[in-house]
Known about the structure:
- The protein has 432 residues and is of the alpha/beta class.
- The protein has helices at 4-10, 24-33, 45-52, 63-71, 107-119, 136-146, 186-197, 209-240, 244-251, 275-285, 291-317, 345-354, 382-387, 402-408, and strands at residues 14-18, 37-41, 75-78, 89-92, 125-128, 157-160, 179-183, 203-205, 326-330, 359-363, 390-393, 412-414, 427-429.
- Strand 11 (390-393), helix 14 (402-408) and strand 12 (412-414) form a beta-alpha-beta unit.
- The chain binds nicotinamide-adenine-dinucleotide.
Amino acid sequence: MEMLEQKIKNKTAEIGVIGLGYVGLPLCLQFTKKGFDVLGIDIKKERVKLVNQGKSYIEDADQQGIKEAVESGKLSATWDYDKIQECDVIQICVPTPVNVNKEPNTIYITDTTREISKRLRKEQLIILKSTTFPETTEKVILPILEKSGFKVGKDFYLAFSPERIDPGNKEYTIENTPVIVGGVTKKCTHLAKLLYISVMQRVIAVSSSGIAEMTKLLENTFRNVNIALVNELALLCERMKIDIWEVIDAASTKPFGFMPFYPGPGVGGHCISIDPYYLSWKAREYDFHTSFIELSAKVNENMPYFVVDKVIQALSENNVCPSGARVLILGVAFKRDVNDQRDSPALKVMGILKQRVKEVIYNDPYIDKIKGTRERSISLTESLLKKVDCVLITTDHRVYDYNWIVRNAKLVVDTRNATKWIKKKNVVRIGC
Ligand SMILES: NC(=O)c1ccc[n+]([C@@H]2O[C@H](COP(=O)([O-])OP(=O)(O)OC[C@H]3O[C@@H](n4cnc5c(N)ncnc54)[C@H](O)[C@@H]3O)[C@@H](O)[C@H]2O)c1
């Protein structure tokens, strides 16, 4: 039998990807582009059907690429876990959310691992890509896999390789964003590195899966803490009547030692707003309190309330009684130019605002419907802009014509500095 290493080198290894979402689908495509055959597995039958029809539902997995991969037979999808026995490599890309108490919910990765364990065979490489707390690979995944009777590093291989994709980012793609790999044994690391170097530009091997897990959490906590810092400074700047946006632009001219982060209505998405909680939860097991994470959560989670207060104040100053006001929210995706509404701060703002004004409606060119509600995106017209009492910019999608919006709206509250170049009296920006 051809050994796994040889199969990876020859690109004859069959690649499995479990979880065909924002991470999994672009990953499938990257492997097919580089010549591998890929099998995608998802419990959502609708997604499996779409993939097999050659249709993409994720921005970063281009439609044409998926179509060609399916037509050429390089990509197929299934919900049948028995098929993973055919895969030489299995990458786990399932969600890692938090529960209402902000504690890690690892059920998706443990369920998936149990399914793999039942069917594990010799010479398979399992790679966890989902973001999670340090020790997950060795203390959660490994024991489940070893229930199969096989030994890691000898019969099968196990590694952690955090996904670093930034949806919507055209400069840094899945191919040119360096990949981190950390295996449970040296052979595991070696095989995982070999795999990714055949499809990505740069791979960095670290000495353990724990280092790789912590690396991802450092990256996301770093963002979370720095966003909190500028959010706090934005509140101070408001009080001092200093424009935080101009301050950040000026500080950004320093060619070293500074990296710009921007204020906004809060943090969201399936990473920045969740991952730090994985770390703070794990830290408690070691009698350790991650004070920076707690502090940044406090600041960032206050932002939607601050934004709502800002709208109420702006309405009052415009002689509109808030309880009778209609507010149009622009952008409910958690960040610009994506269709991801998970944990979006705009949705939080919307919920709080509804208790304070008469009506809240929204427009988002990327999001037709808000999940779990009846809310639908309303088409953005001149008459709508003229009709509402306030337009609240929560996500600065590039397709919006901000000049036209400001020209036609009575009042604009801008949480993203999308109206940076527009100096009009009807615009109120946070942090100024
Ligand atoms: N979205 C991002 O920008 C991003 C970036 C880096 C890392 N991550 C991490 O990657 C992981 C996946 O995130 P995502 O955004 O792709 O999630 P997603 O929700 O877009 O996709 C996950 C997919 O997994 C499927 N799934 C759930 N349970 C399953 C099971 N038992 N078997 C098979 N399929 C199952 C779901 O149906 C869904 O299609 C998370 O840990 C996340 O933190 C996400």
